[in-house]
Amino acid sequence: MSVLTIARDGAIATVTVDNPPVNALSQALRQGLWDAVATLDADPEIRAVVLICAGRTFIAGADVTEFGKPPQEPHLPDLVDRIEDAQKPWIAAIHGSALGGGFEVAMGCRFRVALDSASVGLPEVTLGIVPGASGTVRTPRLAGVEAAVDLVTSGKPVRAAKALSLGLIDAVFADDLHTNALAFAREALTRDLPPPVSLRPITAPNAAFWEDRRKTVTKAAKGAEAPLRALDCLRKAAEAPFAEAMAYERQTFLDLRGSDQAAALRHVFFAERAAPRPAHLRDVGPLPLRRAGVIGGGTMGAGIAAALRDAGIPVTLIERDDEALARGTATLRAIFDGAVKRGKLTDAQADGRMAGVAATTDYAALSDADLVIEAVFEDIAVKRAVLDQLAAVCRPDAVLATNTSYLDPRLIAEGLPNPGRFIGLHFFSPANVMRLLEIVPVPETAPQTLASGFALARMLNKIPVQSGICEGFIGNRILKRYRAGAEALLRQGVPIADIDAAMRGYGFAMGPFEAQDLGGLDIAFLQREGARAAGRDVPETLGDILVRAGRKGQKTGGGWYDYAPGDRRPQPSTAVSDLLAGRITGAVQMDHDAIARHLVAEMAAEGRAILDEGIAARASDIDLVEIHGYGFPRWRGGPMFATGRQG
Ligand code: 3H9
């Protein structure tokens, strides 16, 4: 099947690209567009060309699957030049997303028009590369250097209205893109054409601007290389002639394309796209999820309710008494108020979110819910009692979910009249922000219930990963191994501050000890104590010694570190050295790189055990868990990918 067709309507030709799923610029499409320029240039009847796409989106970019292979002609930068040099003006008509190479093709066109629902952007840095077909050179000529720096170094797309105000596009339509684009083309032919984008002037900012941006981009990049290299390209575009800047961009693109970071980010890109649609559920439709209930208005319950409301799902929030209900509602309100303060929501939107919440102590209000998620205290008896009440009031086909992070969901489901509709949905705190959702079926969970868990993840814009049942599921089980690994190094004499600094250097926002101080050492301690009380053999950890001495983290003024009142900066603690003196048995010296490699290898070793036991289906799922739930640096690709690479 041809990847594009050409139609003629009087003096205007329409080139329709049809290269599913996202009209990516495969070699065949590049060649097709190259040939279309020649065909239409040679057609004396044609005076302008509308470039439009079939399917869900305009051209979404270069074909990422071709990145591992040698580049094939025609190269994209040449194609963009060829469209710009065409004898007839081309008009890009954009719906969906014009991203990366797709937007570069649009910038080769003389005009860009779009539906108001469309967005445009240059997400290349999120793939560890820079735009490779003039994105850094043409964008500042359309939108100015400052806006181009924001767009290219963040990789974040902008909606059509914003793109219009920045000068990236020329017109926005509510509907009828093709008809409106044809009318735009006819009208454009009655006026003088604007110069091609490559010939437009550019105003170079001063050196202070670049120094300032280098600082902000370095901070935001958190170790990723591409945003800084993109900034270099933009500076070159501002200060050097067009051709020189193009050569610089192309070389940077080719350098980065084969880099470890780009390979890692491509791995994550495809892992994220594979995760929401597992092959074993391909033929299973989800249940409708129109109304939801949340039991428990604590931090977790309120966060889950907020996530559901953000997706437009009406929520009934249940608490055990009026006082707890008032606290839960206030927590939820505070989440939306915080979003208003950060400019993410308007006051009216926040009110709308709250208006869709029915708060009550009466379980009967859940009689029409399609899905109920319990997020009550982590105690098996409490959870079982909640599930009994739900079974009594909910429709037989409603999905009943537990948000437990450590309890065995099989025990929670015990005694349910219809365990086929039961499932574990493990959210991460704050549940309205964190993208990971571990989906944990019990043996009885029906395929449709499981498919509904994945459908919910898609509705909430979360990354779903299916986990089998084991202590801590995938994520917390690896976390336990990671912390144990860090304690083992400490016992061998590696200083706490070195271990934390090593992991920060690797790309984590915090090291393992700082993170425990922030979250509190007592949570894991209480779990261990619970297991000990149940007769299990849980060896003493160094963290246990600290908690027993009253050092639970920042909230008690000290954990692994000391903290001055009102100051979150960790200070080395002589009290901790004294407490642990007898347990530090070695004087091992390790540099930061060796520490980080060792601890990532520990995570990956646990990951391999998880795969061997069938708890996770794919190594890439484990990488997603670590990246989206535990702050593993995305540009390292996750522990499984990183250790595969480092050998
Ligand atoms: C670039 O352009 C470099 C240039 O500057 C220079 C070159 C010289 N390639 O996300 P979805 C597949 S870098 C190949 O679920 P949605 C995806 O794997 C590129 N395949 O859809 C999936 O496959 P499957 C810059 C791609 O509707 C299917 O399409 N562009 C590509 O939720 C559906 O994907 C980007 O980074 C691709 N470029 O969202 C854009 N993109 O069905 C990346 C997608 O087999 N793409 N696939 O699982 C996106 O952001 C989203 O796909 C988009 C649609 C918003 C377009």
Structural notes for this entry:
The chain is of the alpha/beta class. It folds into three domains: 4-258, 2-enoyl-CoA Hydratase, Chain A, domain 1; 284-466, NAD(P)-binding Rossmann-like Domain (Rossmann fold, 3-Layer(aba) Sandwich), CATH 3.40.50; 475-614, N-(1-d-carboxylethyl)-l-norvaline Dehydrogenase, domain 2, CATH 1.10.1040. It contains 26 helices and 17 strands. The chain has an eight-stranded mixed sheet with strand order 12-11-10-13-14-15-16-17, with helices on both faces. A six-stranded mixed sheet has the order 1-2-3-4-6-9, with helices on both faces. Strands 5-7-8 form a three-stranded mixed sheet. Helix 5 (145-154) runs antiparallel to helix 9 (226-239). The longest helix has 21 residues, at 592-612. It is globular and about 85 Å long. The model has no long low-confidence stretch (mean pLDDT 96). Bound molecules: (S)-3-Hydroxyhexanoyl-CoA. Residues 21-22, 24, 56-57, 60-65, 76, 97, 99-101, 104, 123-124, 127, 131-133, 135, 273 line the site of (S)-3-Hydroxyhexanoyl-CoA. One of its GO terms (biological process) is fatty acid beta-oxidation. It catalyses: a (3S)-3-hydroxyacyl-CoA + NAD(+) = a 3-oxoacyl-CoA + NADH + H(+). Keywords: Fatty acid metabolism, Isomerase, Lipid degradation, Lipid metabolism, Lyase, Multifunctional enzyme, NAD, Oxidoreductase, Peroxisome.
